[in-house]
Amino acid sequence: MTQSSSDHEPHIVDELSAFKLAFRRLAAGVSAVTARDPDGRPVGFTATSLASLAAVPPLATFNMARVSSAWPAIEQTDHVLIHILGSRNSGLAATMAGDHDRRFDGDHWAPGPLGLPLLKDVPAWMLGRIVGRYPVHHNAVIVVQIEDGGLGAEDEALLYHERSYFRPGERL
């Protein structure tokens, strides 16, 4: 299958490129998930797969690669903190998606509930108890029941689209 728009558009040549090119065009909200590894070190990552699953009980899901540096922590812990990121957090989103050894360098976080890494200056955060881990190929769907949370200052949405962070209506 090829695209019909213009000659400088990427062409879909197989199922992997079809998947990657199509999902690059799906704007997604940006969140960050944090936990502690079995040795107590903070771990975390940027996620664009956060979704609500149910209001009663309050359940949410996120997806992650089981080859991720954060997987051993998520696989072995009972709780995570989920942070909703706003447009003022675009740098934080990039940090949490960057080199895993440097994600917690600096003062952008502090110990939060249950000693988990709480990212500062986010519009909202939730403490989630992991109630299910569902491996699918080299990935997993994680289901959490929300047990607590907090709100920060309001902010405009932060979206991820075409490999860039932006707020609706303008690129950052």
Strand content: 35-45%
Report the CATH architecture.
Roll
Corresponding CATH superfamily = Electron Transport, Fmn-binding Protein, Chain A
What is the averaged pLDDT score? 92
Give the low-confidence spans. 1-5
CATH topology: Pnp Oxidase, Chain A
Q: Class by helix and strand content? A: mainly beta
Helix fraction?
A: 10-25%
- What characterizes the major β-sheet? 7 strands, antiparallel
What is the β-strand count?
13
* CATH class categorisation: Mainly Beta
Distance between the termini: 33 Å
H-E string: HEEEEEHEHEEEEEEE
Give the count of helical stretches: 3
Shape label: globular
Number of domains: 1
Based on CA atoms alone, the radius of gyration comes out at: 17 Å
The largest beta-sheet arranges its strands as 3-2-6-9-10-5-4
Write structural notes for this entry.
The protein is mainly beta. It has a single domain (28-171), classed as Pnp Oxidase, Chain A (Roll), CATH 2.30.110. Helix content is 14%, strand content 42%. The chain has three helices and 13 strands. The strands form three sheets. It has a seven-stranded antiparallel sheet. A four-stranded antiparallel sheet has the order 1-11-12-13, with no helix packed on it. Strand 9 and strand 10 (139-151) form a beta hairpin. It is globular and about 50 Å long. Residues 23-167 form the Flavin reductase like domain. Keywords: Oxidoreductase. It comes from Protaetiibacter larvae. It holds the Pfam family Flavin_Reduct. One of its GO terms (molecular function) is riboflavin reductase (NADPH) activity.
